Task: structure prediction
Amino acid sequence: AIRLSQMTGWVSFTLMGIYANVGEIEDGIRTITPAHTLLDAPGAAPLEVSEGRIEFRDVGFAYGRESGGVEHIALDIRPGEKVGIVGASGAGKSTMVALLLRLYDAEKGGIFIDGQKVSEVTQESLRRQIGMVTQETAMFNRSALDNIRYGRPDATMEDVIAAAEKAEAHEFILGLQDHMGREGYEAHLGERGVKLSGGQRQRIALARAILKDAPILVLDEATSALDSEVEASIQSALERVMAGKTVLAVAHRLSTLSEMDRIIVLDHGHIVEQGTHDALLAQDGLYARYWNRQSGGFVNPEAEEAAE
Ligand code: ADP
Ligand code: MG
Result:
């Protein structure tokens, strides 16, 4: 039962991160019923991550006959490499992340982690080895302590505090008080608890990921600035949590993009450009266009497209 509720929670908070704009998800406890529920393949073995290589081998996926998705995605992410995804709204960034997490199965090609196809390993082992940091991460209607410890259920209070400190979350957590008068790490979060700002949510998600210490990290950055006071501290905490891990990041911050080993530019479900930041600028294509229209420390092709 514990296992099931953890899975449910994981699916909810992940979907929350990816489909927050859909608006059907209200908290971290609610179970999302996707159009289909993927089962583990018969005889699925646990994923064994030895190096952390991620390969998209000619991956194709469509949500429906008329709707979008991704096509011919070929991407080999070396162990420890940090890859940023940039693209306009609807380009397929979240779809790539969803496919890696196996929220959907690729219809063409396959996604492999250290040679193992994600659709053929147990979902529990897949999700255990991928850390997620998003600003939309759902908070469960439980204490701040439990919300962070969710990253590693057997963690001690000391472990949780150490992770919160690294995520720059410790200070604000100490100042929390919920409507029942519970304070600090005992204060309850979620829709029936303390309302957190986007930056605070992101730091809780970061603390979770630090505690989880998974070899693969998925980052879905907010498209707009957080309160500038926390912006810089989150950035340095992110750099620390990315160190030594394979990272796939939907990136909007100039500071995150410049940290990436490689940037891929998605357009209408296709990879249209890829390379280092400098190489892409020299290429003077879509990435250069997004970069040159940056504002406030952010590349925001989503807003650009909307404005056109
Ligand atoms: P991005 O994250 O780059 O904004 P997405 O990966 O969310 O783009 O979406 C890629 C395409 O797939 C878009 O055309 C979008 O409308 C479509 N799409 C995304 N999610 C769904 C869904 N759940 N059902 C149907 N179409 C979807
Ligand atoms: Mg998206």
